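Below is how a single chain appears once it has passed through the pipeline. First comes the sequence as given, then the structure the pipeline wrote out for it. We keep one example in the README because the format questions we get most often are answered faster by looking than by reading.
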Amino acid sequence: MNAAAARRGAAAWPAALLWLALAAPPLRGALEASMSTHMLLQMPLLAASGFAAVRALAPPRRARALELAGGCVPPVLAAMLAASYWMLPRALDAALADGAAELAKFVTLPLLVGAPLALAWERLGAVGRGFVWTNLASMLAVTGWLYLAAPVRLCNAYLASGQHEAGAWMVRLAAAILLGWLAGLLVGTPAQRGEAPAGAGAAPTGCAPARRRSPRSPAGTPRAPSGIRATRPDSRA
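Resulting structure:
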């Protein structure tokens, strides 16, 4: 095992330990006691464990997985759909009342939110990352406003005061994400904006799967297929 593989293996351990800590009954019960910590701390940390685990993989494996997924668009869409589902009040109630739903939450958030984003993040570029951040901010803002404006409890597992508190924190977090993204565009480094550094080649930010190029001869002309003689143009013509 070379040094790079050893570093990647060491980087995967924190992701596994984070997931196990979140699944342990003491911490799980403490985070799920409040609607705010349930939605805005436990769930993002579960997604972060999947993100960190995939980022610990070797770059060729990540590239191969992204190619099998059809590019970066399908993983991002899957992550957005999974994240929006776990913001629903019915999903929160099911996770607290049903053990199968709780297990589904601990499995789908790392695998369907964190892992797909980790696969696609390098290839998204500035526009794609902006779509992710603004979409996340809009989902948080709309759901938070719904929790604040609803005259009755939407989530039966929590009190109305906890629902209003969670809604207020979601609106604040949405504003912070939007402001942070705009600040990154204005004052961030080229790498943070998804641009290639000066003097470097273009960054691999395309979402389409990579295409294989046909082999070329040293002179720059395509090689003739095996078994077929290349013909020269008639100079007398």
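Residues 196-203 have pLDDT under 50 and may be disordered.

See the next section for the split statistics.
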